[in-house]
Design a protein that fits this description.
heterotrimer; A alpha+beta; B alpha/beta; C mainly alpha; A: alpha+beta; Beta Polymerase, domain 2; 3 domains; five-stranded mixed beta sheet; 17% strand; globular; B: alpha/beta; Rossmann fold; 2 domains; six-stranded mixed beta sheet; 7 helices; 11 strands
Chain lengths: 534, 251, 717
């Protein structure tokens, strides 16, 4: 990120004004440009941002106000202004807006989600419905609307026996192979229909949100303390990242800056979480290809990472640490030493496994060229995290939008983003292994240069109403949007998770593949459904 | 391939000795708050108020804990007066009826096949169940196996607060299992819905959908607690033994 | 008593003509019952005729006119012909019975009077072909048969596809007849104008190699068209699906046999094999036909077209047997040659039985559901249980599952091929080995093909509304198929009775009895046994023979195939004992289960489908999906490199449809028929250029040259 002068920001606003009466809001700063624009300007402006200024689509936040709808389209990129919020307002009785996903594919699922949950109409979107809310959900009932009770159980409707998902394979004898929602073994619940004419699968219809718990709806009207509990637990394995992102937006709202020691400790915890996550994904990858010894070796590392967390942080998945304004607890020097020592050891062990795997042809055969995603597709769908990096797209929020411990010492940490080009399963594996090393190095550096001082500052009255917070979760970029009312209760909470962004690209990778490669592709994506479904 | 063989063969045995011997390694459990005596009633009420999920209830001079609501946030350990924290893991509970308890013995004591159904849980619970089949816990040594089809399953392990799209799948899975069958609810969200209840889309409790025999509380329950639940089901372990000596405190 | 066959024969002709006459007269809805009555009676007559010839072993002979220039026209039904007549009867009788209810579907749209007439006369024409005793009668009745068959095929003449298939059938058969006619005329020319088969046979013994090859090739090519051998099989997969089921049953169950009859009669009997060459050609063509036939049958999803391809396969197998017999005979191994020929005829009769059954079954499915597309069927077992059971018998038989009839003939075919190790020529051995490998693959694919056919039609969930509302076939159809199912089972279980019968009847061709080698008399061991002394065995044989004489028939129930010194292996097989063991095992298992298990509660629950709300029919394997692996493995045969799927998208990744390009062309069309047609067109274009009025002189010159050529040829020969 480069610092952006006010003139440059004005220059950006000028560029935007070519498209219509666009207004740059005063809360814009060097990092974020907040732009109000008429609904008619949205589509060309968004296209301009994405295709000419190389922004990536981040999130779509819908707010329902008594007299109007506010839609916030979030875009981000490396150079400043790194974040752009396009805000449009719609009349309450006319919730209709042009779809941007024809030209900006990354917005596809976000628009479908908003259509299901709010009943907004995105004109021109080719495929709406049957996304978050499945066939048993009554028509015309939108759970995120303010009139809808968050606690009263919803009555399911009787499903029409003729109901079918939309199929596109038009050839005689085509049929569906259903997978899920209850998987073999202990995979999470989701459903995939494989469209095939036998042997090779031509296309995959993913159906998620079997695990939809309505976190965003449940958050409404609750104190943020309670929402923080949910933010840690909706995905479970990325607790620190999502808690950091949520607390980031709270800290923007309260305008507080956590003390440096807290930021460094957050960095250490986040990297521990990343390491454990990558160990688990790599173990699943080895398991899917039938490599039981490497799988067991990664399992050992994973459990060691879990025990390290349990021993040093009191919870195996690091719940209960992050709080707005810092951390709930401090860590002793000996604990930190243990963490640094152990993570270094685990990183070395994983490097040794990686070296051995590189020479195991039966392993490489299963992953090379499997589930490939080209760089163009990764960009088009705004994929994030290790999957995007494996396709050569740099999307690390730690570098793009440095936050917390990553922004200390005046800029992003000295880290090299591991980029690969092939975009296949093997490239993703290499990225994961490289990130483990990176995390160990970051932890080492943070422990060595840990500032002293308190780990928490108090938060006070609400200063801003809505703000974004973000974090690089193990799976990639997570954006949390929070809007508080005057009492400190949550009015609107919206999470854009990395799994949600990346599952969107899964069906591109899963095209024209042999059926037996399906588990391998799933494993090499290593995504969480709980995180995507919320 | 030979390299892998050597690597595997030269790795030390990592597997826990539990249930033959208690596991004393650090970090295998987050621990839990237990009944704490307080100097006066007001302190008890104050202490209970620190809990964001109402797991702690004041009861005159002490506070009681409903562990199936506790999410291990450790808020109750941070103030002036704190809850007693116990680092054990044998906290699974038998909640089924006596007929199920009677049927569980004999043929199922040595071997049990488990079908896991995720009805909206977080990844952490799934991850902890996965750990059971991995080197450190290796439940296969105890005769427990994960089976892909409910037709072969004796035990249904349910996680998550039973979201409405998964309710039908859960019922179908349960119906597909042969008799006798048992159900273990793993994790607090499967027991009470935890932070995701009450909700418009999640049932909040597996017991409202199908009869449950064993509760394994925790958020997420550590692998040893799940193992305890399985052993409890087969009658090879006893219920909730309070350990007087804590295995360690929160850091 | 020798007049019995003649009486039956004349009765058949009378019945056929009466039936045809009545067809023109009765109301349309009575045509079906009429066919069922007069047609069946005529078929019974012809069956009786054939049976009496086979039993008495006396040829039926009727002398017709003495043509002034050509000689005596004669009908002569010898035992070889009688076997073909038997197959014809087996196919025609159920087809007529089947017509009763089946024809009801047409009168609303088409006039079926013509069908009734031609279908009656077809039986007569077919019998005449087999009964012909001289070239002229043969050719006359052959043409009659071809012409008569064309009309029933194109019954639904208003549909383009049907008309085109009819034309193709007629054109290809005409081309075949012309070739065969030239061959036969060459033969008569060589025999100094004699047209009787016996005279021809005597004349052919002294023919030179060049003439022999020319006559052989012409006759073989001509009759291959009728037999549907590759590369002249294009008409089968087109004509069979469009014909009414009873017609396609007859077309496949008996008309194809005439090609084989022609090859046997003229290439094997009249022109006894002297060198291995012609035999090897027949063998190779047969092997290729079998393999290509079953490959296309496996991937085809139209029930009747699949059966048509399967007919190509079966006729290929028969050709392999005939070719093998010709090679063995040329190498002076008469016993193996006799076995091969006997197997050929056995397989031919089997094929007539089960293919007729399957075609009628396909007709019954079509009748019950309105579709023949396997992708749209499924789950018919519940709606059409009887049809399903009968179809299953046919499918098991054609897939060569013991103890049914297909197994016997395919087993013997493969065993005969294995005997080729005793051949002297290495080249022949190589051809035989390749052919054997091809046949092994064919046998395996046949199982795949019919597992697919049965499973996709009768098992699983109905994949369309028509399949969901299917109705069981009416009684007449079930009876027709039932007769054939019984014949299939009988031909399988009674193999050891059928083989000697065929063997005896094939004597005019084989000049050697194979039954003693193949189905040895009870309690004999011809070569002794290494472990027991000869005396010891002889003693046992005597006791056994004494014991068995009164109780069991002379032939055993075991089929033996034993090699000679070079290949001293004995292969033994008995469908009868297999059946006994199978039934026994099933009974024992049933009893054991009943005895050992306590009374237990049975709970019925829906199939486990991973918690799906509902298992939709399109979630089960489709016929296309089932055979797709075969399509992928043999991609190079089915079509050139796979073309890209066409994708229709709104924008980028918003795809709304993926479409597969249409089915690729039949390999025979691709590499033979189309180039041939193209070549002929080019040639015709060249000739047309000579006809241009502008160059009258050139035209006149051509006429002159042709005239000169004819004169010169006339002078030379």
């Amino acid at each position: 990120m480069t610092e952006l002068s006010p003139t440059a920001l004005r220059g950006f606003a000028e560029q935007c004004r070519h498209f219509g009466p666009v207004e740059l809001l005063p809360q814009s700063d060097s990092l974020m440009a907040v732009v109000n624009c008429p609904a008619a300007v949205l589509k060309p402006l968004a296209e301009f941002l994405v295709h000419s200024l190389h922004y990536r689509f981040g999130s779509l936040v819908v707010e329902e106000h008594p007299t109007q709808w506010k839609l916030i389209y979030l875009f981000y990129r490396h150079e400043g202004p790194s974040l752009v919020q396009l805000c449009i307002y719609l009349k309450a009785d006319h919730p209709q807006v042009d779809s941007i996903s024809i030209k900006i594919h990354a917005a596809d699922w976000h628009e479908r989600q908003a259509e299901d949950l709010f009943g907004l109409v995105f004109t021109g979107h080719p495929r709406l419905g049957d996304f978050v809310l499945h066939e048993e959900w009554p028509e015309g009932v939108n759970p995120m609307r303010t009139g809808f009770s968050a606690t009263r159980p919803m009555q399911e409707k009787v499903v029409d026996p003729a109901w079918r998902p939309a199929r596109i394979l038009e050839t005689p004898g085509a049929f569906l192979m259903p997978i899920g929602p209850v998987y073999a073994d202990y995979y999470e619940s989701a459903q995939f229909f494989l469209e095939t004419v036998g042997e090779d699968v031509l296309r995959l219809i993913p159906r998620f949100f079997f695990k939809y718990r309505g976190v965003e709806k449940l958050a409404q009207g609750r104190p943020w303390q309670r929402v923080l509990l949910m933010a840690e637990r909706f995905s479970g394995t990325s607790a620190i990242a999502h808690a950091t992102a949520l607390c980031g937006s709270l800290e923007h709202i309260y305008q507080v800056q956590p003390p440096p020691r807290a930021l460094s400790l957050r960095l250490i915890l986040a990297e521990m979480e990343r390491m454990r996550h990558h160990f688990a994904v790599l173990s699943d990858i080895c398991h899917a290809s039938g490599m039981s010894v490497p799988s067991a070796q990664m399992d050992i590392l994973e459990e060691q990472a879990l025990r390290l967390s349990g021993q040093c942080a009191g919870h195996r998945y690091l719940y209960g640490w992050v709080t707005p304004g810092g951390l709930n607890r401090d860590m002793s020097a000996t604990t930190l030493d243990t963490i640094a020592r152990e993570t270094r050891r685990m990183a070395e062990a994983s490097a040794s496994i990686h070296r051995s795997l590189q020479f195991t042809s039966s392993f490489l055969d299963r992953f090379e060229g499997v589930g490939a995603i080209s760089m163009a597709v990764a960009r088009e769908l705004a994929l994030v995290g290790p999957i995007a990096r494996a396709s050569g797209v740099s999307t690390d929020l730690r570098i793009m939008l440095p936050y917390g411990g990553y922004a200390q010492n005046g800029g992003p940490p000295a880290m090299v983003e591991p980029l690969e080009r092939e975009g296949d399963g093997y490239a993703r594996i290499r990225v994961l292994f490289a990130e483990i090393q990176q995390s160990a190095k970051l932890i080492d550096a943070a422990v060595a240069a840990l500032p002293t001082g308190p780990v928490r500052v108090e938060t006070a009255g609400v200063l801003r109403q809505g703000a974004f917070g973000w974090a690089e979760a193990p799976n990639g970029a997570a954006f949390h949007y929070l809007r508080l009312d005057a009492q400190g209760c949550v009015q609107r909470y919206q999470i854009a998770t990395p799994s949600f962004a990346n599952w969107h690209g899964f069906h591109i990778a899963a095209e024209n593949f042999a059926f037996q490669d399906f588990p391998i592709m799933m494993a090499s994506f290593g995504l969480s459904i709980a995180e995507s479904d919320r | 391939m030979f390299g892998w063989f050597v690597k595997g063969a030269t790795s030390r045995v990592k597997t826990t000795r539990y249930p033959a011997r208690d596991e004393t390694a650090l970090g295998v459990t987050p621990g839990r708050p237990v009944e704490t005596t307080c100097d006066n009633e007001l302190l008890a009420v104050d202490l209970a108020a620190t809990c964001p999920t109402d797991a702690i209830k004041p009861a005159s001079f002490k506070t009681t804990v409903d562990i199936s609501r506790c999410v291990h946030c450790m808020a109750c350990t941070r103030g002036e007066n704190t809850m007693r924290w116990q680092m054990d893991y044998r906290w699974a509970r038998w909640v089924g009826n006596d007929a199920g308890r009677a049927a569980r013995h004999r043929p199922f004591q040595k071997s049990l096949h488990i079908r896991v159904v995720d009805t909206g849980s977080c990844d952490a619970v799934i991850s902890e169940i996965k750990q059971l089949a991995k080197p450190y816990y290796n439940m296969h040594r105890l005769g427990f196996f994960i089976t892909p089809t409910p037709r072969h399953a004796d035990v249904l392990m349910v996680t998550g607060p039973v979201t409405s799209p998964m309710r039908l799948a859960l019922l179908k899975t349960y119906a597909a299992m042969p008799e006798p069958k048992w159900v273990i609810a793993v994790g607090n969200c499967a027991i009470s819905g935890c932070v995701f209840a009450p909700s418009f889309i999640a049932n909040g409790s597996v017991a409202d959908v199908i009869p449950v025999d064993v509760h394994v509380p925790g958020c997420p329950p550590p692998p040893l607690a799940i193992l305890h639940g399985l052993l409890l089901l087969t009658g090879r372990e006893t219920e909730m033994q309070p350990i007087d000596q804590p295995l360690g405190g929160p850091p | 008593m020798t007049n019995m066959p003649v009486l039956f024969f004349l009765a058949m002709i009378a019945l056929c003509i009466t039936g045809a006459a009545l067809s023109a007269w009765v109301a349309q809805h009575r045509i079906g019952p009429l066919l069922a009555v007069t047609g069946s009676l005529a078929s019974l007559m012809i069956l009786a005729c054939a049976t009496s010839v086979l039993i008495t072993r006396q040829p039926m002979q009727i002398d017709l006119w003495h043509l002034p220039l050509l000689g005596l026209l004669r009908l002569r039904l010898d035992t070889v012909s009688a076997l073909f007549v038997l197959a014809l009867g087996i196919s025609f009788l159920p087809a007529y019975l089947f017509s009763k209810s089946y024809m009801n579907r047409y009168p609303a749209h088409y006039n079926i009077r013509g069908f009734g007439m031609f279908f009656h006369l077809l039986l007569m024409a077919c019998t005449l072909v087999l009964a012909a005793g001289d070239v002229i009668t043969f050719l006359f009745s052959w043409r009659l048969m071809s012409a008569l068959a064309t009309f029933p095929i194109t019954l639904e003449h208003r549909q383009d596809e049907h008309r085109r298939a009819g034309y193709l059938f007629l054109a290809m058969n005409e081309a075949g007849i012309i070739l065969a006619t030239v061959g036969l005329l060459l033969m008569t020319a060589w025999a100094a104008g004699h047209i009787g088969f016996t005279a021809l046979h005597q004349a052919m013994e002294h023919i030179q190699a060049g003439g022999r090859w020319a006559i052989f090739l012409m006759i073989f090519a001509g009759f291959s068209v009728k037999a549907g051998l590759v590369p002249v099989s294009s008409w089968l997969p087109r004509a069979h699906p469009v014909a009414p089921a009873n017609m396609s049953a007859v077309l496949s169950g008996c008309m194809l046999n005439f090609g084989i009859y022609g090859i046997i009669r003229f290439d094997a009997i009249i022109m006894a094999p002297a060198t291995a060459g012609p035999g090897l050609v027949v063998l190779a063509i047969g092997g290729i036909s079998a393999l290509l036939g079953i490959l296309y049958a496996t991937i085809d999803n139209d029930l009747k077209r699949m059966l048509a391809h399967s007919s190509i396969e079966n006729l290929g197998l028969i050709a392999v047997d005939i070719g093998a017999g010709m090679v063995f005979a040329a190498y002076h191994m008469p016993v193996i040659a006799a076995i091969a020929w006997v197997v050929a005829i056995y397989h031919l009769i089997n094929h007539s039985a089960y293919k007729t059954l399957l075609f009628l079954g396909a007709g019954a499915i079509d009748h019950g559901t309105g579709t023949r597309d396997m992708n749209a069927l499924g789950g018919l077992l519940k709606r059409m249980p009887v049809t399903a059971a009968l179809f299953l018998v046919g499918a098991l038989a054609i897939a060569a599952m013991p103890p049914l009839n297909g197994f016997v003939s395919e087993w013997l075919t493969l065993q005969t091929i294995l005997r080729s190790t005793e051949l002297a020529s290495r080249f022949s051995r190589v051809i035989f080995a390749l052919c054997g490998a091809g046949l092994a693959l064919t046998a395996a694919l046949a199982v795949t093909c019919f597992v697919k056919t049965f499973a996709m039609s009768f098992l699983g969930l109905p994949r369309s509304d028509t399949a969901r509302t299917a109705v069981e076939s009416p009684q007449s159809m079930r009876v027709a198929m039932g007769v054939l199912a019984v014949i299939c089972i009988a031909l399988g279980l009674g193999a050891t009775w059928v083989i000697p019968l065929v063997d005896r009847s094939m004597f005019p061709l084989t000049h050697q009895l194979a039954a003693n080698a193949l189905v040895p008399p009870f309690f004999t061991l011809q070569h002794g046994n290494a472990q027991f002394s000869r005396d010891f065995l002889t003693g046992f044989e005597k006791i056994g023979a004494d014991l068995g004489k009164g109780v069991v028939p002379a032939r055993g129930l075991v089929i033996l195939h034993q090699g000679k010194v070079a290949n001293p292996v004995v292969y033994a097989m008995s469908t009868f004992y297999m059946a006994v063991v199978l039934v026994g095992i099933m009974l024992i298992v049933y009893l054991l289960v009943r005895l050992t298990t306590r009374r237990r509660t049975v709970s019925i629950s829906e199939p486990w489908a991973a918690g799906l709300r509902r298992l939709w029919p399109d979630m089960s394997y489709s016929a296309t999906g089932f055979s797709n692996p075969v399509r992928i493995i043999f991609k190079s045969i089915f079509g050139p490199a796979q073309r890209e799927d066409s994708q229709i998208a709104v924008a980028g990744h918003f795809r709304t449809a993926i479409r597969r390009p249409p089915r690729d062309t039949y390999i025979v069309d691709r590499i033979f028929l189309r180039p041939l047609v193209g070549g002929v067109k080019v040639l015709a274009g060249l000739m047309a250029r000579l006809h241009r009025p502008a160059v009258v002189n050139a035209y006149a010159a051509w006429v002159f040259i042709v005239l000169l050529f004819v004169l010169v040829m006339n002078r030379l020969f």
